[in-house]
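Section handout, structural biology tutorial.
Before the tutorial, make sure you can parse a SMILES string by hand: atoms, branches in parentheses, ring closures as digits. In the record below the ligand is zinc ion, and the chain has 225 residues. In the tutorial you will relate the predicted C-alpha cells back to the input. Do not try to memorize them.
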Amino acid sequence: MNKLCRFIADIFFPNRCPLCLDFIRWDEFICSHCEGALKSFPEEICPKCGKAECFCDTISYDRAFACFYYEGKAKSGILSLKDGHKEFGIYTGNLLGERIADCKIKADAVVPVPMSRKSYRKRRYNQAEVIAERIAEINSIPLLTDLLYKNESAVQHTLTKAERLENTAAFGIKSRLRLYDKKIILCDDVITTGSTMNRCAALLKEMGAAEIYAAAAATTKLKKE
Ligand SMILES: [Zn+2]
Ligand SMILES: [Zn+2]
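Predicted structure of the complex:
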C-alpha cells in the first residue's frame, strides 16, 4: 500500500500498534512505547548463526541478522504478522534492511523463505516476503520470490527436532536461474532450529551463490527439551 492509500485508509480504519493495540499515527508501524520496550539486535546472538547458543559448525549460511528474541512483545509482533497484520513485518524489515546497509554488506538480491501453496492460500501473503520487501527496498536490490518452493508437509513447530530435520526436504529449487558468485540475503520471520535457513541456504549455494546472509525478525532461545 502506498503512502496516500495508507493515509486515507487510516481515516476509516485508524492505525493500531500490532503489539498493544493502541492507536498510532497512520505512518507508524508500532507505537513508541512498544518500540522502547523492544531491545533490538541483542549482543549475545552469534553474528554467524543467529542463535545465542552458537551452532556455527553445522550451518550453510555465512552470517545472520536477527532483530529480537522470539519472546514478549516481539513474539506478539510475529504472531500478528502471521495473523493478517503486516506492520511488524514492515517494522522489522526496515530494521534489518538498515542494519545490513550499516554493515556495508553489498548483497545482490533478497530471497524470502518460501511457504507452501496451501499455507499461502490460507494467509494470502508470505510473511517472510513482507520483511524481505523492505530489506530489498532499503538496499536497492531485487527481491527474488521464485527461486525456491516448499511442498506441503507438517508445520515445523509441531514436529520434534529429528522430524524437523527431515522436514527440510520439503524445500526445493524451482528456477533455472544461476546465482554464480552472488551474495544473497535469505529472509524468514523466525530462526527456530536454523534448519529451514540452513536448507534454503544450501539450495541457493547449489544454484551457485557465493555467500548467504540469513535475516530474520526474531530468533528463539534454546528450549529445554
Ligand atoms: Zn504498542
Ligand atoms: Zn554461531
